[in-house]
Amino acid sequence: MSEVDMHDVLYVEDDPVNAMLMQGIVELRPGCRVLVARSGAEARRVVAGQQVDLLLCDLRLPDVAGDALLAQLREAGLAADVPALLVTAEAEYVAADLARRGGFDGFWSKPLDVAATLRSLERWLGEH
Description:
five-stranded parallel sheet, Bact_response_regulator, Rossmann fold, Sig_transdc_resp-reg_receiver
């Protein structure tokens, strides 16, 4: 698979175990790779320097609330058409509200169900 066919998924997550688990799940989909940013500042540098195809953002980060980060990333260069999902262990109704208020397209609940996550990933990335 060429670099052109690759989908880059940016996961903003400060917990290395959670980052590794997400990487393992997402990379089960051929043509996907995960870029991990461990803080809001690191995520802003990533989106300023390269295009990503999907943003996954943890709610609790060391330097910014995850639900407030999306607007900052859009200003830093994350394209308006890139889907963004909040990833959280909050109750579903809380996660849905936080995602909506933060401008996210949706959310994934922790702990992640591998099959459901892959189906959702396929939906967000589409067939291109």
